[in-house]
Structures are given as structure tokens and as C-alpha cells.
Amino acid sequence: MIADKRLSAAEAGWIFLVSYTAGVVFSAVFSSQDAEGGYTLSLFLVQVLIGNVLLFLLPGVIWTRWSGLSLKRTLRLHAVPWSILGLGVLLYAVSQVPMLFLHRLTEAALTLFGDAYKPSDYPISDNVGSLLLLLLCIGIIPPLCEELLFRGVLLSGLEQHGILFGAVVSSALFALFHDNPYRLFELFASALISALIVQRSGSILPGLAIHMATNLTYVFGSYARGGDLVEGVSSSSGVDVPFLILIGVASVPAIYVCWLILKRMDRQMLVRSREQYRDETARRDEAGGCKDSLLGSREDAAGGRMAASWGWAVPVTLAVIVFVVKAVVG
Q1: How far is CA 64 from CA 74, 196, 257, in A?
Q2: Tens digits of residue pLDDT in 188-228
Q3: What is the rounded (10 degree) CA torsion for 254, 117, 232, 234?
């Protein structure tokens, strides 16, 4: 029964609140260092290690182990066929068309309200040494820790209320987590795509590969451009209406292709699940434990339905309040 027990949505919510609030406080301390001119890339490395590993990742891992839950199951540390991994990467690549449309649409809306798009504030490398350090600090450590937190711990817990609920809420928390009001919709859409891929594959590995590839591309692209890569895809001459319409139209078939890829992943994983189920059933029959296991699964499912509540909303609401206060205070 312990092996079948899962993280609850409320537990996932509180884990996020602890990690997010601790990260906000910790970032504020380092921001003061930056304002005083004492902020260096070495200090940035320390910030990444403490913030991502100790504050973002460890609370979920520690709670999972403390509760006697399976760390492998909660974090979705499962092998995945190369074909599924390839489909996940392909889906994410195709999704960049509607993502670009969303980015430009956000810029257009901000322009209409007299505001300007602001990318997230990350260091930009200006030499090979700093490039290698930022590849580690932006391209490897944060994607690893964030995937284990959001597509591992949080997604597993929030799925107590349904697959789609888990994907949507964990993606919203991912967008909130990055503390940039200008990128909320982009980050949510990107995280939702990753969540759907992880759910279809049953493994965190495709999401991790995509996240790392995205961040590494950002670091390399910013280094080559000599400035923030996101600003490089922004329009500096106002709203380019014809281009916005063009990518908006192109987004329709791109979304359809993404849906087809998801369906293909579903079919492949269904075949794989049936094969694994046959093997597992055969082993259980040999051990004489098939009946008890099925009964335990039914009890676990019923318990999950009875436990469904709004308990997750309390910590999530508190996290939203922290986000709003931080955005207002600056």
C-alpha cells in the first residue's frame, strides 16, 4: 500500500509556497548585493546552487521521503523510449510558432497600454569563461531542479484532481515562480506543453531535455548576440501587424500538428503500457498477489476521490499574494 500512496494536491501546494517564498526572500538579499555593486558571476553561482538546490528542490524531496512516498514515482524518474523522447522534442519545436505569436501578441498589448515588454533579468556572458559558467548556472542546474519540482513533485500531487488540472495548475505555478509579470502567459504556455509531454511519456526526461535545450539556446544566443536573446526576437519599431497576423495564421496548423503528435505519443505509450501490464500481471499471478494488489489500487483511488478538496487553494492563494506584493513593491 505504501508503494501506491501518492502525494496530495494540498501537500504539493504547501511545498510550492515554501519553495517560492523562500526563493523570493533569498533573491531579495542577492538583489541588494547587486545594487551595491558587489554582485559577480561567482556570487551568481552561489545563488543558483542555494536557491535551486536547497530552496526549490530539497523541500519537495525531503517531504516525499519523510512521507514514505516513492521518490522515483513522485519525480517520474522513469526511462522513456527514444521514439517518445523524439516526439516530445518535435512537439516542442513545432509549438514555438504559436509561442512566438503569443510573445508578439503580448508586446502588442503592452504597447497599446503604453508599456514595454521586459525580459527576465539574467547575466549575459562576454567571454568564454563566463559563457561556461552561465551554461551551468542557467542551462543545466535550474532546468534540472525546476523540472523535478514542477513536472515531478507538483504535477504528481496536483494530478489528484485530474490530469488536466495538474497540468494547468502546475504550469500556472511555474509562470508565477519566475516573477516576471510580462512573461506570465508565455511561461504558462511553455510549461503547459512540457507538462502534457511529461504526462504522455510518463517520464520527466523529455521535459528535462526540452527545458535544458531551451535554456542552453538562450545562453548561447545571448552570448552570440551580445545581449538578451528574448529582446532579439522583440519588435523595436512598434507593433508589426502584418507579421503578427502571419504568425497567428501559421499558429493554427502548428497547434493541429502538436495535437497529432500528442495523439501519436498516446498510442505509443498505450502499447507500451499494455506490454508492461501483461508482464506485471504475470509476475503477480506467479506470486499469488494479483487480487490483493487490485483491491489496494481500488482503495487508493477511492481514497483519492474522498481526499479531493480545496486544500491546495490556500497555499496557492498565498503564493499569488506574495507574487502581487513583490510585483507592486518592485
Answers
A1: 8, 23, 37
A2: 999 999 999 999 999 999 999 999 999 999 899 888 887 77
A3: 50
